[in-house]
Amino acid sequence: MSHQVIIVGAGIAGIAAAHTLATRGSVSDFLILEAGDYVGGRLQSVSFGGQVFEAGANWVHGTIHPETLKENPISALVRAANIRGHNSNSDDSETLVKDTATGKDVTLPAKVRGEELEAAAEQLHDKLCQQVESEEWSIRNDISVREGLKLNGWQPLSALDRTLEYFEWDFQYAEMPEITSAYHNVLEEFTEVDFGEMEFFVNDPRGFSTIVKHLCTECSLDPEKDPRLKLGRRVTEIEHTCDGVKVHALNLQSNCVEVYQAAQVVVTVSIGVLQRSSELLKFSPALPTWKTEQFTQFQMALYCKIFVAFPRAFWEQAEYLLLVTEERGQYPVWQPVPGRPILIATVTGEKARRVEQLDDSEVVAEFLPLLRAVYSDVPQPTAVHGAYFSGIETALQVADVL
C-alpha cells in the first residue's frame, strides 16, 4: 500500500507536519513512523515527588513582541491548548548566588559582574549588527563568543565570573563560549528579535506534550489507535526511486524490517541523527555533499535535568539558585520548585554527557557536598531522578546502539 506522504518522527515537528498537511493541504493520506513508544519527542513529562515535571523542553523562548505584538507560533499553540505556566525572564528573575568555597551569599557582587557581562554582550551584538548592515561581515570572519566578549572588555577572572558566564551562555545554548558562534548565537537570536525577551515556563500537570495532543485533535489523529501512526518503528533507510520513496523501518517489537511506500517523505529527526546518518539512517542515493556539509554546521545541545526531592526545603525561595564552584559547570544552576521540597539541577555540554554515565548515588555524591557548603543541615535526598535528553545520546539509545 502506497501513501501520499510518509513522515519520519512523531515529535513536535512530525506532528506539526501532519497537522499542516491535513489542515492546509487537505492531505489525510499520510503515515507517521516513530521509533519511540510515545508522541512528542523531547516534549516528555515525568511524575516525581507527586508532581509532573518536564523531562525535556520546558520553556517557550520569546512569547510576544511588546511593540509589534508579533506572537511566537509556539506561544499561540500553548495559548490554544490552554497550557498552564508563568512568564519568566532570566534577566529579571529572582536569582540567588552562593559561593561554595566560603559558604557566603554573593548575590550583590554577582549582580554587579552580571551587568558588566551583559554590557559586553550588548556591545558585541551591536558591533555585529553594524558589520552586517555595512556588508563587512562574512562567515569566514566569524568569531567565538569567547573572543567577542574579550574584545569588548569581558574576561572571566574568578569562579563567580565563570558561574555567571555559564548561566548566561551554557545554560541557554548548552555550549561553552569558546565553541559558540558569535554570529549564530548572538546576532541570530531570531526568537528574541521577533517575539521579545519574555519566556514562558510550563508547569502544567498535563505536561507540555499537551500541545502535541492538541495538534493531533485538530487534524483528527488519534495517538492511541490511529493506523496512520506507527510507534516502535525505527527508520533505517530512505530509498528514492523513480516511483517515489521506499522507507525501511525496523519493527522494534518483532525485530522485522518493514517497507513502506509513498510519493514523498518528510524527515523530522534531530540534527544529531542526521549527523550520524551513516550509522543510524541511510539515504539512497546519498544526500548531496552541500546538504550533509550543512549538518556539520550545527551541534546538538546536551542537556541533563536532575530532579532531587528532600524531606524538607532548606533553601530560600527564588526562581534560580546559582552555586559558585571552582570547577566550571559543576552543578551550578538549580531551580527550587514553589511549594515543594524539590530542586531541579541542570547540567549542560560535556558535563551532561559525563553525568549520564553515572548512577544516582554517584550523582548525589557529587552535588550534595556543594549544597552542604552553602546551607546548614542539608538532609539526604529522598529521591533522585535524572532526565537525560542530550540529542545524539538519546538517538543512539533509541537506535539500540548503546
TrEMBL record:
Gene Ontology terms describing biological process: polyamine catabolic process
Signal peptide location: 1-17
GO function terms (MF aspect): oxidoreductase activity
Official protein name in the record: Amine oxidase domain-containing protein
Family statement drawn from the similarity comment of this UniProt entry: Belongs to the flavin monoamine oxidase family.
Amine oxidase domain boundaries: 12-385
Keyword Signal found: yes
Alphabetically ordered keywords of this record: Signal
Pfam families associated with the record: Amino_oxidase
InterPro entries: Amino_oxidase, FAD/NAD-bd_sf, Flavin_monoamine_oxidase
PANTHER family, per database record: AMINE OXIDASE, FLAVIN MONOAMINE OXIDASE
